[in-house]
Amino acid sequence: MGRSSHITLDDIAKRLNVSKVTVSKALRGHPDISKETTQLVKKTVQEMGYTPNYMARNLSSQHSNTIGVVIPKIAHFFFSSLIESIYDTAFHNNYEIILTVSQENSEREIKHIESLLAMRVDGLIVSITQQTRDHTIFERVKKQGIPLTFVDRVFDIPGSSTITVDDRGGSFMAIEHAINLGYKKIAHLAGYPEINIGLRRYQGFEDAMKLHGIPVNPDWVIYGGFGEEAGYRGFMRLLNSGNMPEFIFAVTYPVALGVYAAVEEAGLKIPDDVDIMCFGNSDVNRFISPSLSCVNQPTDKLGKTAVELTLDQIRNIDMVEPQHIEIPTELILRETCSVISRRA
Amino acid sequence: MGRSSHITLDDIAKRLNVSKVTVSKALRGHPDISKETTQLVKKTVQEMGYTPNYMARNLSSQHSNTIGVVIPKIAHFFFSSLIESIYDTAFHNNYEIILTVSQENSEREIKHIESLLAMRVDGLIVSITQQTRDHTIFERVKKQGIPLTFVDRVFDIPGSSTITVDDRGGSFMAIEHAINLGYKKIAHLAGYPEINIGLRRYQGFEDAMKLHGIPVNPDWVIYGGFGEEAGYRGFMRLLNSGNMPEFIFAVTYPVALGVYAAVEEAGLKIPDDVDIMCFGNSDVNRFISPSLSCVNQPTDKLGKTAVELTLDQIRNIDMVEPQHIEIPTELILRETCSVISRRA
DNA sequence: GTGAAAGCGCTAACAG
DNA sequence: CTGTTAGCGCTTTCAC
To answer: Domains in chain B, ordered, with CATH?
Structure first.
């Protein structure tokens, strides 16, 4: 069983001939209780192997000491390092994280948010799926008065905070670098324009093209998602169109990997036949051949800020204005997009 | 505030002029309640924007519908894909996962387990850190009657289940393959022998060496951990010893990456100067140069089985014997360890 | 400093 | 089919 075998506050109280209130307070270091009593309680708790019951504590105290997190994917560097940073920051702030993974599926996202609400998380951090279009669940979250912070893939929900990187600027830097290298025939695998990172990264691309007087070829702006499949299919479409660009800018690292796979399958070579750069980095990038030049997103800072922002809102509810923080990005140059080693 | 603004069962009950028990039952689809009442309740719940309170539900029903997970690391393919599989399986079984990350730190591991116990998770899945040596926390878990399943990095705790891959056999296959290719000077970066995967993978290595009559050179069995740093330092030690092996078998994929970094820094080339293979795969392996031949661990199956085993124990507590499942591995041959392209 | 009373929101057991 | 009665284990007033 074990179900009734749990030791409760009352058990220790009885053993010590005090009330459970005393024990409860002692355990939480309440100043009401004398040093000796506190000592004694703690010792007894050890001896009896008491484990507090957070469900009871939370129900009674009306908060859970918990932040809910919803992210689209986990087995990709961007998200796994983001999560690691979120966990770390929460740990140092004595908060628990309840993580859920939507698998890029917006229905699942909604289910998870509902669970998290039912678990009475004190705050919510979310990065929306690539197919999320509907705001209503997030408005419900705000209506319940729960602090809500979006990371990277954001929505503009009144009362919620957002923390993103400078997508537009980063994208601009990348394209400008490619142009300076001499590329003119530039394609962009652009995710989805309905998702902020898709839109903003496209805008940065467009900015750079315009500034340098290069017209954007609509056939070379290909939407289709933020995952490997999108990169693979995108490249195949370019290939089959018979009009290949010299350079591809991929909206995410996974999209770039999809391109790598497709290029290899087509019997072509990066960067000789087509060059590439992407938004986002990876821990194994240095081992990949050719290693990818990219726009780096500081995931550590993204995660840390997301938690801190949320915590701020939790602790000073109603007092803190929602914030919109944008973190700068930097170009990391590796083997791709570094020299033009071919064509006339 | 929002704190008192939550709608409760009682609120809907009053509105409908029924008791909250009726509402509670209707919501959970209890057969007691008539179709019409159930319909009506569900409609009202929608209208009023009711969100159930799991803390209250759990406290009352004495279970949390939740499995706690403790893993050492998240931003590495093995763990992130393991977690993805755990989440997926839990989702399909209508269970929540509460994930914690120990960061390879055994004190943190203990803290997390204590939190999870306090949260009254129905079961626990853990993969121990590389520095965990002490069993007591796990014995405490068992004493509390909580189903406990270890994945991959396991302890032998009475009453707990384990799910591992065939570490010894996989390791054996890898070494035998290298030997058949003609290698005799074989080193093993072996993790830590106190952790099962370290021990078992070493044993497989030793088995193969013995079988083929090749003596194990103790200088070529290097311990030091399961992460990249361990691979880096391990290779540097080999390099500086002045007695370089022809072939290195790395206990994990990250260790192999550490070797890659060190080899490059030393101005050497894989596989010409030193060849390598490792235990464990990665999603980006095919893009890495040279791509790594490895022993594949089916993380999907590991995660799925871990959850199912735990669920079994939860649902039939006291009725189910703890199990010890070992999943077969397979060799995946890529560019390393495929032909000997050099030396006399 | 300590404790008694009340209740967090829900479910289980039983009675009607 | 529906409702009443009791808690789950803890924290929060507010007395003493």
So the answer is: 4-52 (1.10.260.40), 65-165+298-326 (3.40.50.2300), 167-297 (3.40.50.2300)
